[in-house]
Recover the amino acids of this structure.
């Protein structure tokens, strides 16, 4: 039950963060495409004359810090639990959990510094390209930690889930690196937000496939260490059942990718409608000044006379 609750929390946090970043990215590129540049953090809009709203501008960043704190504490606490159901038993589980906790602590340090630099005038805010570079390193470390976690699992399903999660983290790392070098690359910014949403959906699917009996693939069962009373994730004893379960997970991952693409289309449409953008037919560009306007009209008249 604890594993499923944590997966639900991680899924909700990542989906909220990714969707918020996606909405802000679309809004800024639609409203001011010429001055658009990717930002690691978008504060809530400022409302003139509303002090309470202005104080809540950093609410998304505060929620991110709280989520990272919970993730860091969770990985730290479970490192003290025994887990004989992984390769290498409890010592390997302990170091693997501490490795994940260290990655979350890195993200937490960056988020806390960003909050303090936005609030206190004594701290100089870090440039956006440096923040994206740090995020790229953090996502790469998470990719490394997830890959190492997949390697020590005796559960083939959990190993495959961790492997797919690692690939999403590797994609996020690459996109952050691109944004550090090309901050005006809108496609990379939108893809980064979509990848975070995909990671959130995959965390939910991982929890359902490993810890909820109704979603466990056919022919698989929960692991249990009877002597230690330790429950693990899902294991398939028969090779045919394992291959079928892995194929089901691959299919579900593709379904989640399709859902994220649909979410991207819907979000862009709704943001464009909220920003007042409407689809129009073809038009001829208007001249910029009055002299160009008179020349434009004269050319039109001359063309009509010649015809």
């Amino acid at each position: 039950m604890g594993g499923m609750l944590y997966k639900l929390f991680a899924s909700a946090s990542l989906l909220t963060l990714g969707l918020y970043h996606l909405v802000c990215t679309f809004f800024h590129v639609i409203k001011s495409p010429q001055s658009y540049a990717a930002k690691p953090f978008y504060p809530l809009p400022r409302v003139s004359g509303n002090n309470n709203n202005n104080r809540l501008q950093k609410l998304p960043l505060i929620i991110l810090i709280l989520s990272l704190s919970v993730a860091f504490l969770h990985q730290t606490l479970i490192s003290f639990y025994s887990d004989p159901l992984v390769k290498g038993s409890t010592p390997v589980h302990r170091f693997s959990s501490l490795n994940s906790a260290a990655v979350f602590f890195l993200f937490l340090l960056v988020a806390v510094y960003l909050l303090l630099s936005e609030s206190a005038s004594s701290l100089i805010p870090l440039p956006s390209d440096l923040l994206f570079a740090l995020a790229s390193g953090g996502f790469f470390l998470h990719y490394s930690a997830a890959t190492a976690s997949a390697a020590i699992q005796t559960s083939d399903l959990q190993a495959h889930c961790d492997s797919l999660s690692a690939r999403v983290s590797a994609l996020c790392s690459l996109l952050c690196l691109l944004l550090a070098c090309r901050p005006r690359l809108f496609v990379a910014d939108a893809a980064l937000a979509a990848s975070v949403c995909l990671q959130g959906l995959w965390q939910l699917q991982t929890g359902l496939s490993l810890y909820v009996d109704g979603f466990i693939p056919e022919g698989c069962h929960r692991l249990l260490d009877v002597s230690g009373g330790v429950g693990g994730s899902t294991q398939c004893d028969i090779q045919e059942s394992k291959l079928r379960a892995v194929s089901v997970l691959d299919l579900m991952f593709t379904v989640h990718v399709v859902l994220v693409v649909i979410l991207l289309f819907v979000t862009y449409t709704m943001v464009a409608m909220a920003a007042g953008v409407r689809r129009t037919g073809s038009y001829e560009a208007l001249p910029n000044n009055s002299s160009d306007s008179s020349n434009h009209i004269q050319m039109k008249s001359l063309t009509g006379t010649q015809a």
